[in-house]
Amino acid sequence: MKRLYSVAACLVLGGALVAGCGSSSSSSSNSSSNSTPAAAPATSTPAAAPAAGGTISVSMKNIQFVPKSVTAKVGQTVKWTNDDSVDHNVTATSGGTFKSSNFGQGSTYSTKLAKAGTVQYVCTIHPGMTGTVTVTP
Ligand SMILES: [Cu+2]
């Protein structure tokens, strides 16, 4: 009698496992959807936008601008992000007129590049902390 009871229990468990397999395989069949490729042409259209505008990111890290030199086009924006625990600023020394106030960790400063040329800038708190933006037409 005991043996019969355990066989019956195995059959019940086996039935539950089969049911579990059946439900998981039926849910995975949902992934064969043809609607995904239709979204690709839509995303290719806005791809032209970064060429006209766009943002160049520069980090302020370990009392340095990273990368130290960047190239951008007229009309693009350069955004500096302070990743240090001390304050920094961004002050143009030649080729530009922008000057930020001091800002702390996690804060950013952005400026739009209005004309072509080479802009050199410095953090006036740390005179050795310099960078260059080469602006192309
Ligand atoms: Cu600084």
Descriptive notes:
- The chain is of the alpha/beta class and 137 residues long.
- Helix content is 26%, strand content 34%.
- The protein has three helices and eight strands; from the N terminus they run H-H-H-E-E-E-E-E-E-E-E.
- The N and C termini lie far apart (91 Å).
Keywords:
137 residues, 3 helices, 8 strands, four-stranded mixed beta sheet, 26% helix, binds copper (II) ion
Structure summarized in a few sentences:
With 137 residues, the protein is α/β, with parallel strands linked by helices. It has helices at 2-28, 40-44, 49-52, and strands spanning 55-60, 65-66, 69-73, 77-82, 91-94, 108-112, 117-123, 126-136.
Secondary structure topology:
Blueprint: H1 2-28, H2 40-44, H3 49-52, E1 55-60, E2 65-66, E3 69-73, E4 77-82, E5 91-94, E6 108-112, E7 117-123, E8 126-136
Bound molecules: copper (II) ion.
- Uncertain residue ranges: 6-11, 13-51
Largest sheet features = 4 strands, mixed
Proportion of helical residues: 25-40%
- Portion of residues in beta strands equals 25-35%
Small molecules held by this entry: copper (II) ion
**H/E element sequence:** HHHEEEEEEEE
Mean pLDDT: 77
Number of strands: 8
Helix and strand content put the structural class at: alpha/beta
